[in-house]
Amino acid sequence: MTILSNETLRVEVSAHGAELQSIRKGDVEYLWQGDSRYWGRRSPVLFPIVGSVWEARYRVDGTEYQLGQHGFARDMDFTLVCATDTEVRYRLESSDETLAKYPYPFVLEIAYRLHGASIDVIWEVKNPSDKDMYFQIGAHPAFFYPDYDPEKSGRGFFTFDRTEGIECIRIKEKGCVDAVTKWPLEMHEGVLKLEKDTFDAIDTIMVQDSQLKRVNMFKEDGTAWLSLSFDAPVVGIWSPPGKVAPFICIEPWYGRCDRVGYEGEYKDKDWMNSLAPGEEFKSVYTIEIA
User: Fold this and answer.
1) pTM of the model
2) CATH classification at residue 167
């Protein structure tokens, strides 16, 4: 475990999955602490897929591979590259184990950097091979609802950098989506009210096509709680359906689960990223604590 701190925040990161474990401001914990009754993880990094591939199988140049939801990086031990009081960097490299289920050599580096009340989450993916590489990557941080009370319906509310005309798609079957049907995100005066049953019928609010670049979370009384800003083209918002869970996930993604019934090549999946030999992908998203 690596501890980062400054005058405002104290953050813990584990080498296992290069995963955030804690975000504290004073005595207040903002990051979900992984109770398996609801969801046993905290802030896994999703790589080399986001979500599910149809029937847990995908194809590269006609050869079929099996891969579970969200890939394997979240369950692997990363190597600590460097650390200071306010920044840490980890690395994961391809191996015989990863190549057996994902046939692309890679170098994945994940870093966390504190500045003021904000945390930059930095991803770098490198292609060390002499062939094109294809991948997806995404975030899955879970945050405590402020002033959570299981007996009350209200869970606060969201605002976005857009106030109307937001369209969503939904999970349809086996963790995969109906990518054709668009659903309007039901908001009132630019606000998405969060209730204890918000996700019972829809599972995940999934917004793609770069419609959103910022999500702001507020307490019931209108006090700011936290925000995420990102450049990712897809964002998922999720809390376990039917569990009255104490947390909600805000998830910037460079990728997305398969369409229902997809049996094409991996490289042709929706929201796929590619790297030519020697190229690098870099991205940052920011968590800001109010």
Assistant:
1) 0.97
2) 2.70.98.10
